[in-house]
């Protein structure tokens, strides 16, 4: 058991560190370090533009999508090298946000199921940040039950015609391509009638509408499809095999371990270390200390759980669904921390502006945003089901619609 | 980076698990639970023969000279089996105190006897209510003579010797405390067994009346040595707690698969599934924090104080959580003496207090994190 780099790892770290020192956009360093909890705020620049420039530079230096094969724009790096890169990239890693869905989910799916031509055409551009990808899975009536989706794709000659609606699509408004799962056969049970495609988001008939979220921001979108034509060459996997293809996507999401997961603990620790209560510093208050300690050990537990997963990965073991605990633990923790920080602020806690008493409303923002952490990418309840079923081996839920043809499943709207 | 135990260490863990499955079944634990024996003497002998008691004791003192990582994997299995033997008192507390502060003669006298299973040791620190703190040590030592009483002392009634924390000054500083080594079979010692939450590990009150004792470590260094001993023990106990938590989770899972109600396995209800999933989350976080503690312990890293506190808190919470909800999954049967659930519930809650309460360690963690941040 050790944390030391092997000589090869140390050499890799050194090379990465030197390259970053010479190439990183240092003018944004301060703003990026101040952007906490996955929210990037650059005063004078568009985050996507700055992100694209950094991604392009990394690509040219051979540092983009490190774990991808070289022929598709990656570096063929080992899992440990990828982690070392993330550690060295530090605050600049925050700029990768617009590319994470592409690198972590869409790209690997194209790699596993796409034709050689498609891989060579799309993956290097994705790695270079020239083309951004989004993932079109969820629908208004297919969230946790994503296999119940309604968007139809009908074969017309050599192409497919798509009609329907997707929702909660992060980054659709700045994406160039999308990974789309659609129903191609409503006469068979729901998991069996799905097919995976990718499409140009600028195709005629695609309409992206931003969703105003509960926290007042607009990061997600609704995407409407009206007679959108997708060539059959942009199908991934066989017709009717979409569900299996989607599992590749979701499994790759779990492979992106060591990912930066905000817990709110460093922010809370700092806040409590500086906050004066009536009897002294908050961090000297026994009740505050007890809560802080419980959060701190959850946060360190997550960190070392990911280290264990990385170690397993480096030995060639496949990371399992046990990595689901990351989001489950951190989502709830963010919400609890935000609530408690505001409790400590007392009356001023209600303010959401740039007031000094609330440290510029950072916990208020956390409070308003945290519900999405517990829903997006698998709700807390779905994650618990996954742990219960796939890790602990408990029986699956009783699925009354499992063997019923899709068009015979009772729904509210039909 | 390799954040895992080695293949040899994993093999040792398997070996310990197999040995304990054979020699320390719940039936065997119940002999002590029911008060028919103060501890499992046969098992203790077996642990000595397997080399487990002296795994982290250097060869020159009769041990296997392996190391703390090896002791961690054995600790996990001891916790899993809720072994009714004075392992933590003797191996984590007494032996570690001797290793840190013992003179050559003291180590020669006691460590080989620990490794061979001939001597049971313990730490006599607490005096009634309260957590580890110099101000809570009232027992006095003057000219090597102890006066005062300690309670509760884990395994005090079966111990051959004790490391005793005593007051040798009154300045109000840590330097007021010194440690002493006491042969409990000699004069001036009165031992009384106490009933406690977890009868598979006894507790006692030990009264010292003009009891002669030899110093362990330098005078006035007692608190600093104790802090180190408690940190090491915190990591080792965390592994026992992780083992216990895992077993409680398994028991709950197995019962949920076996028990039928409303025409289906109760493990198919989300209320039960989610409860078990949450237990898994606690147990996983505790295991990961404990691995970090093991690394810090085995390398004597500067991070040990913080790592030990984190492991202690996380493992305490996980074992309590899993043991509690294991009973809930079992329903009424979980509340019977006949089912083993309560043995884990008792052990979890007794262990939560043994080295200082959860609140105490939370307090320690925050202090240590602040120290690190300030540095």
Enumerate the spans of chain A where pLDDT stays under 50 for 5 or more consecutive residues: none
Percent of residues of chain B in beta strands?
A: 5-15%
Shape verdict of chain B:
globular
- Sheet/helix structural class of chain A: alpha+beta
The averaged pLDDT of chain B comes out at 97
- Measured as a percent range, the helix fraction of chain B is 40-55%
Output the CATH class name of the largest domain in chain B: Mainly Alpha
Q: How many helices of chain A in DSSP terms?
A: 12
Shape of chain A: globular
Give average pLDDT of chain A, whole number. 91
Most strands sheet of chain A: 4 strands, mixed
CATH architecture of the largest domain in chain A: Up-down Bundle
Share of residues in helices of chain A: 40-55%
Give the number of DSSP strands of chain B. 10
CATH architecture of the largest domain in chain B: Up-down Bundle
Q: Can you tell me the residue ranges of chain B where pLDDT is under 50 for at least 5 consecutive residues?
A: none
Within the CATH hierarchy, at the fold level, what is the topology of the largest domain in chain B?
Butyryl-CoA Dehydrogenase, subunit A, domain 3
Number of domains of chain B: 3
Strand percentage of chain A lies at: 5-15%
Brief rundown of the structure:
The complex is a heterodimer of chains A (414) and B (375). Chain A contains twelve helices and ten strands.
Topology:
The complex is a heterodimer of chains A (414) and B (375).
Chain A: H1 7-23, H2 29-34, H3 47-60, H4 79-89, H5 100-113, H6 116-127, E1 133-136, E2 152-156, E3 159-167, E4 177-183, E5 194-200, E6 206-210, E7 221-231, E8 235-236, H7 242-255, H8 265-274, E9 276-277, E10 280-281, H9 286-314, H10 325-345, H11 362-373, H12 380-391
Parallel strand pairs in A: 1-4
Antiparallel strand pairs in A: 2-3, 3-7, 4-5, 5-8, 6-7, 9-10
Helix pairs in contact in A: 1-4, 5-6, 5-7, 8-9, 8-10, 9-10, 10-11, 10-12
Chain B: H1 7-23, H2 26-33, H3 41-49, H4 68-80, H5 87-101, H6 104-115, E1 121-124, E2 140-142, E3 145-154, E4 161-167, E5 177-183, E6 189-194, E7 203-212, E8 214-216, H7 222-258, E9 260-261, E10 264-265, H8 270-299, H9 304-330, H10 341-354, H11 358-374
Parallel strand pairs in B: 1-4
Antiparallel strand pairs in B: 2-3, 3-7, 4-5, 5-8, 6-7, 9-10
Protein name (chain B): Acyl-CoA/acyl-ACP dehydrogenase
Keywords (chain B): FAD, Flavoprotein, Oxidoreductase
Domain Acyl-CoA dehydrogenase/oxidase C-terminal (chain B): 220-357
């Amino acid at each position: 058991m050790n944390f030391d780099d092997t000589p090869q790892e140390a050499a890799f770290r050194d090379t990465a560190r030197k390259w970053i020192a010479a190439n990183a956009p240092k003018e944004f360093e301060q703003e990026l370090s101040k952007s906490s909890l996955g929210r990037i705020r650059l005063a004078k620049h568009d985050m996507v533009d700055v992100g694209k420039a950094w991604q392009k530079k990394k690509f040219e230096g051979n540092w983009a999508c490190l774990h991808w094969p070289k022929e598709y724009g990656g570096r063929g790096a080992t899992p440990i090298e990828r982690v070392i890169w993330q550690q060295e990239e530090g605050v600049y890693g925050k700029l990768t946000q617009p590319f994470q869905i592409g690198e972590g989910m869409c790209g690997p799916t194209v790699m596993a199921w796409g034709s050689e031509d498609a891989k060579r055409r799309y993956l290097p551009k994705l790695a270079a940040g020239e083309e951004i990808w989004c993932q079109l899975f969820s629908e208004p009536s297919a969230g946790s039950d994503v296999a119940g989706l309604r968007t139809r794709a009908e074969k017309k000659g050599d192409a497919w015609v798509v009609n329907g609606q997707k929702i909660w699509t992060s980054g659709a408004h700045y994406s160039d391509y999308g990974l789309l799962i659609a129903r191609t056969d409503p006469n068979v049970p729901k998991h069996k009638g799905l097919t995976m495609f990718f499409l140009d988001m600028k195709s005629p008939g695609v309409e992206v509408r931003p969703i105003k979220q509960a926290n007042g921001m607009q990061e997600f979108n609704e995407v409407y499809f009206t007679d959108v034509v997708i060539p059959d060459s942009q199908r991934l996997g066989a017709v009717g095999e979409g569900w299996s293809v989607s599992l590749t996507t979701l499994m790759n999401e779990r492979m992106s371990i060591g990912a930066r997961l905000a817990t709110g603990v460093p922010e809370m620790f700092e806040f409590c270390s500086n906050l004066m209560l009536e009897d002294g510093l908050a961090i000297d208050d026994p009740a505050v200390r007890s809560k802080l300690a419980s959060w701190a050990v959850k946060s360190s537990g997550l960190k070392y759980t990911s280290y264990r997963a990385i170690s397993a990965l480096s030995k060639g073991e496949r990371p399992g669904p046990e990595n689901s605990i990351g989001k489950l633990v951190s989502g709830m923790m963010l919400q609890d921390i935000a609530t408690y920080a505001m409790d400590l602020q007392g009356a001023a806690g209600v303010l959401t502006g740039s007031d000094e008493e609330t440290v510029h409303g950072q916990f208020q923002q956390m409070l308003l945003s945290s519900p999405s952490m517990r829903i997006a990418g698998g709700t807390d309840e779905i994650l618990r089901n996954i742990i219960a079923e796939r890790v602990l081996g408990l029986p699956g839920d009783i699925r009354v619609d499992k063997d019923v043809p899709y068009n015979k499943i009772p729904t509210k709207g039909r | 980076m390799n954040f895992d135990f080695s293949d040899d260490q994993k093999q040792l863990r398997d070996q310990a698990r197999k040995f304990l499955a054979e020699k320390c079944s719940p039936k065997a634990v119940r002999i002590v639970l029911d008060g028919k024996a103060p501890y499992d003497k046969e098992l203790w002998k077996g642990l000595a023969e397997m080399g487990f008691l002296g795994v982290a004791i250097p060869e020159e003192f009769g041990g296997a000279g392996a190391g703390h990582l090896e002791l961690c994997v054995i600790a996990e299995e001891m916790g899993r089996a809720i072994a009714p033997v004075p392992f933590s008192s003797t191996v984590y507390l007494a032996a570690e105190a001797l290793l840190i502060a013992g003179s050559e003669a003291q180590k020669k006298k006691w460590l080989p006897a620990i490794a061979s299973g001939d001597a049971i040791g313990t730490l006599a620190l607490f005096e009634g209510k309260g957590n580890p703190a110099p101000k809570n040590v009232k027992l006095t030592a003057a000219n090597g003579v102890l006066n005062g009483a300690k309670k509760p002392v884990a395994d005090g009634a079966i111990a051959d010797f004790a490391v005793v924390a005593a007051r040798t000054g009154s300045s109000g500083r840590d330097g007021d405390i010194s440690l002493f080594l006491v042969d409990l079979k000699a004069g001036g010692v009165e031992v009384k067994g106490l009933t406690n939450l977890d009868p598979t590990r006894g507790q006692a009150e030990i009264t010292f009346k003009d009891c002669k004792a030899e110093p362990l470590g330098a005078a006035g260094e007692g608190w600093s040595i104790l802090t180190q001993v408690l940190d090491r023990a915190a990591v080792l106990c965390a592994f026992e707690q992780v083992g216990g938590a895992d077993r409680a989770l398994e028991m709950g899972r197995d019962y949920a698969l076996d028990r039928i109600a409303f025409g289906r396995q109760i493990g198919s209800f989300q209320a039960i599934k989610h409860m078990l999933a949450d237990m898994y989350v606690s147990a996983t976080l505790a295991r990961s924090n404990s691995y970090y503690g093991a690394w810090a312990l085995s390398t004597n890293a500067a991070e040990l104080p913080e790592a030990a506190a984190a492991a202690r808190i996380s493992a305490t919470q996980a074992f309590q959580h899993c043991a509690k909800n294991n009973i809930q999954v079992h329903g009424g049967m979980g509340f019977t003496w006949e089912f083993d659930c309560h043995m884990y519930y008792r052990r979890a809650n007794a262990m939560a207090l043994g080295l200082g309460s959860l609140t105490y360690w939370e307090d320690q963690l925050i202090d240590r994190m602040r120290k690190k941040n300030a540095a």
